[in-house]
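for the writeup, i need someone to sanity check this before i put it in the appendix. the sequnce is what the collaborator sent (i think, or maybe the updated version? ugh). structure was predicted straight from it, no edits. if anything looks off just tell me and ill rerun, i have time this weekend
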Amino acid sequence: MKTTVIKRVLLSATMLVGVLGFAVLPASALPVELCPTPVIGEDGTPVTFECNPTPVLDTVAPVIHINNPNDTQLKKNQIVLITALGADAVGVVQTELYVDGTLVGSSSNPWVDATWTPTKRGEYKITAKAYDAAHNVGTSTLAVTVK
C-alpha cells in the first residue's frame, strides 16, 4: 500500500477562491495555513496529512496617503475636503483623519473623507491613520497653512 504524505499547505485568498470558487474570510485570517483531514486517494491509497501549524504573523503596518487637500495654502472659513486612502498586504480595517489631534473623520474602509472648516489663521497638521487586523498602524501627515 502506497502512502502519500503532505506536510503543510499555505493558501492565499486568491488560491482559496480558485480552489473553493469563493472565500469569505476576515482579513486577519489570511494567509491561512490549512491542516486538512486524511482522505483516500482516487486509487484507494490513503493520503496522510501532517501539520504542525505555525501562525503567520502580520507585522507590517499599512501605508496611507492623504490625497486632498492637494494645496497646503488654505483660507480661513474655507470648507476643506480631506481624503486619504490606505493599503495593506492583508487589508485595512479602519482609517481615521485628524486635524491637530482632533478626530474629524473615520471609516471601516481603506478610504476616508471628512470636511473641515478652519476658523483661525495659522499652521495646522492633518494626520491620516490606517489600521490592519493585526493592530499595525500606518500614519501620514500633511502640514497646511490657513491665511
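The chain is about 5% helix and 50% strand. Residues 4-49 form one domain.
thx in advance!!
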